[in-house]
Design a protein that fits this description.
There is one protein chain. The protein is mostly helical. Helices cover 82% and strands 0% of the residues. The protein has one domain: Up-down Bundle (Ferritin). Helix 1 runs parallel beside helix 3. The radius of gyration is 17 Å and the shape is elongated.
């Protein structure tokens, strides 16, 4: 079993957070197809499938950043994403009504987006502080996509799903 080391520098902390998000994004690549099948609203289903494609690109961007650091891309268990997905699964299983289930699905998806926004915002700031301009630009691109995904979920919820769930 590898010895767990504690980060002592901002650079080490950056790498640890990058590993966390790498695992989190990979968890989402596995979860999103299942969530898309659960969705009954066509706009929600399309949004989830579109975000799957983006999430695969987020994984590739993180792998590029690992390469820039001359490190092997590896994750460490992202407990945050795992917990949100587990909680969301229970919530979805508790919903008998399709519209209420879609509203629950959006709530869970937005919890994930907010976790990602916080994480990528932090990684972006640290990359800039560490002089990692190219990594910072990649992280900003991902951060912007996560913010747009969150806004799209709000739009679908407010204009369609929540109204139907009433």
């Amino acid at each position: 079993m590898p010895v767990k080391t504690k980060p002592h520098t901002l650079n080490e902390l950056f790498v640890e957070e990058l590993k966390d998000m790498y695992d989190g994004e990979k968890q989402l690549v596995r979860a999103l197809p299942k969530l898309a099948k659960t969705a009954t609203n066509s706009d929600l289903k399309k949004g989830i499938n579109d975000h799957l494609t983006q999430t695969e690109e987020h994984v590739a961007r993180i792998e590029r950043i690992f390469g820039m650091l001359d490190l092997k891309a590896q994750g460490k268990k992202c407990e945050g994403i795992q917990g949100i997905l587990s909680e969301g699964k229970v919530s979805l299983e508790d919903c008998d009504d399709d519209n209420v289930r879609d509203a629950s699905l959006i709530a869970s998806a937005q919890k994930v987006e907010h976790y990602e926004i916080a994480s990528y915002g932090t990684l972006h700031a640290w990359a800039n502080q560490l002089g990692m301009d190219e990594a910072g630009a990649l992280l900003q691109k991902t951060l912007d996509e996560e913010k747009r995904a969150d806004a799209k979920l709000s739009e679908v919820a407010e204009q369609m799903v929540n109204v139907a769930a009433l």
